[in-house]
Amino acid sequence: MANETGHFRMEEPAPPDQQPENQTKAAVEAIQQLGQMNVPAANETNIFCLTIVGQIEGHIVLPPQNKTTKYEHIIPTLVAAEQNKNIDGLLIILNTVGGDVEAGLAIAEMIASLTKPTVTVVVGGGHSIGVPIAVSSTYSIIAESATMTIHPIRLNGLVIGVPQTFEYMEKMQERVVRFVTSHSRITESQFKELMFRTGELNRDVGTPVGGIDAVKYGLMDEVGGIGQAITKLNQLIDERKRTGETEGIKQ
Question: Where are the compositionally biased (Basic and acidic residues) regions (predicted)?
Answer without folding.
Answer: 1-12
